[in-house]
Amino acid sequence: QVQLMESGGGLVQPGGSLTLSCAASGFTFSNYWMYWVRQTPGKGLEWVSTINSRGNSTLYADSVKGRFTISRDNAKNTLYLQMNSLKHEDTAKYYCAKDFYNAMDIWGQGSLVSVSS
After folding, report:
1. Do 110 and 41 form a contact (C-beta atoms < 8 A)?
2. pLDDT at position 54
3. Whole-angstrom Cα distance, residue 97 to residue 3?
4. Which of 17, 20, 51, 116 has its CA 20 to 30 Å from the CA of residue 36?
5. Residues 12, 36, 40, 91, Cα dihedral to 10°
6. Cα separation of 37 and 28, whole Å?
């Protein structure tokens, strides 16, 4: 069964840091590009970041560039999102997703990040 499971969300103060993890199972994780996407009630779905299968190429939305870092450990079948200098507007439910021909075919259940003082 193909599955993605996020963890690591929570409440953090503005300026703080948090790391999300996404555990993959049921497929050959190292073969696929992966994404982080977030959803807020006001802005809907927003692409956050992409990483290639080997982990040596990354892309970021302008809104998080310089503050977030996507990475992966193919030996552990795990995707990460290190989030620094968090802002109120980063509050969202964060999803990891698997690539399939430039589309996101498998999604996790999401992990809620709340940035508040």
Report:
1. no
2. 97
3. 10
4. 116
5. 10
6. 21
